[in-house]
Amino acid sequence: MSYSMPAPLDVKLMNVTATAMFGGVAILMLAVVSWWAVRHPAFSIARIVVEGEMLHNNAVTLRANVAPHLTGNFFTIDLKDAREAFEQVPWVRQAEVRREYPNSLRVILHEHEPQAYWGPETGTAMVNTMGEVFEANVGEVEREGLPRLSGPEGSAVEVLRMYYALDPVFTAIGAPVDALTWRDRGSWLVQLDNGASIELGSGKPEEVLQRTQRFVRTLPQITQQYQRTTEALEYADLRYPDGYALRLRGVTTVSREKALEMARRQAAQQQKDSKKTRPTEGRH
C-alpha cells in the first residue's frame, strides 16, 4: 500500500506564485498587443465604401463631408456615432455602417423620397413617402408639381394620408391637389392646381372623403346649368350638412340651397331619362 505525501507549503506557494506571474505576463502581453493594434497606423480608417441609390448625394462628397467627423480607428470607432454622422447629411434618411477588416467602413445609405413640400412656402421642409418630415434644399428636387402639405406639429402622416385619398378624386375632374392644409381646429382646406379653393370641413377622414366625392360627383351637373365646365370652379364650401355653396368664374355665387336643388333636379332628370331608354318586356 502506497500513498503520496502532501506537497510542502513552500512548494504550494511557489506554484501559486508562478501561475500568477505567468497570468500577469499574459495579460500584460495582451494589453501591449491591444495598445499596439489600437494605435498602429495600419488600422486607421483608410477607406469608406458607400453604397445605395443616391440621387442627391454622391460617394465622393459624402466621404469628404463625413470623414472629419469620424474619430478612432478600425477597432475604436463608434459605429453609432458614425451612423449619426452620415444621417446628418442632407437627404439621407438612414445609414447602415459596418467594419470591414483591416481598415475600411462600408456604408449603405437610404435617401428620402420626397412626396410633398411641408409647411409654409418660405420653409425648406419636405415630407417623404412615409410621412417623415425632413429638411432639404428644395432647389435639388427633380420632381415638378409636388403638392404643399401643412398641418399641426406631428400631423404629417395624417395629412399625407388624406392627400393620398383626396388627390385621385380631384384628378378625376382634371384638377389635382396643389395644396392641402389641416388647420388646428380640425378643418381641411384644399387648393387645386387650377386655382380653386375648397373648404372641406372637419370630421373623420372617411366623412371628409364622402363629402368630397359627393361634391365632385354633382359638380358637373351644376356647372352645366350655367354653360360652364368644372374648370370654371373658383371656390366651394362643403361645410354644410345638406349641400354646399360654390362660386364659378363669371357666375354669381351659388348658394347651398340652389346648388342642392340643381343637383337633385339633374339627378332626377337623369333617372327619368334612363327609364325612358330602358327596354320594355313583352307580354305573353
Automatic annotation (TrEMBL):
Residue ranges of every copy of the POTRA domain listed in the record: 43-112
Stretches the record annotates as Disordered: 261-284
Biased segments, Basic and acidic residues type: 272-284
InterPro entries: Cell_div_FtsQ/DivIB_C, FtsQ, FtsQ_C_sf, POTRA, POTRA_FtsQ_type
Annotated transmembrane regions: 20-38
Coiled coil stretches, renumbered: none
GO cellular component, one term: plasma membrane
Domain of life: Bacteria
Alphabetic keyword roster: Cell cycle, Cell division, Cell inner membrane, Cell membrane, Membrane, Transmembrane, Transmembrane helix
Pfam families xref list: FtsQ_DivIB_C (PF03799), POTRA_1 (PF08478)
Protein role: Essential cell division protein. May link together the upstream cell division proteins, which are predominantly cytoplasmic, with the downstream cell division proteins, which are predominantly periplasmic. May control correct divisome assembly.
Family indicated by similarity: Belongs to the FtsQ/DivIB family. FtsQ subfamily.
Assembly: Part of a complex composed of FtsB, FtsL and FtsQ.
Protein name: Cell division protein FtsQ
Phylogenetic placement of the source organism: Bacteria, Pseudomonadati, Pseudomonadota, Betaproteobacteria, Burkholderiales
